[in-house]
């Protein structure tokens, strides 16, 4: 009688091993995709900071503010010193 008597892995063992291998490969692929995505985001330039006056002018250009509202809010911004250089 030998110490090795054939393959004792049942059908469930093969299924579990296959599923485990597929999950491991999927995790490796997902990790690679996340790593590539993270490195590409670092290369994107930062969006320029807009001053409050620029934001107000954009709202006026889109038609969100009337001429009177724009002038009043612009005056308020300039009087309170909320302008950024």
What does this structure look like?
With 85 residues, this protein is an all-alpha fold. The protein has a domain at 49-80. The protein is 67% helix and 0% strand. It has three helices and no strands. The protein has helices at 11-42, 52-62, 67-80. The termini are far apart.
Quick rundown:
With 85 residues, the chain is mainly alpha-helical. It contains three helices and no strands.
Please give the alpha-carbon distance between the first and last residues: 90 Å
Largest sheet: none
Helix fraction bin:
55-70%
Dominant shape: rod-shaped
Calculate the mean pLDDT score and round it.
83
Outline the low-pLDDT stretches: none
Quaternary state of this entry equals single chain
- Secondary-structure element pattern, one letter each: HHH
Approximately how much beta-strand content do the residues carry? under 5%
Number of β-strand runs: 0
Which key features would you list for this structure?
single chain; 85 residues; mainly alpha
List the helices and strands and how they pair.
Elements: H1 11-42, H2 52-62, H3 67-80
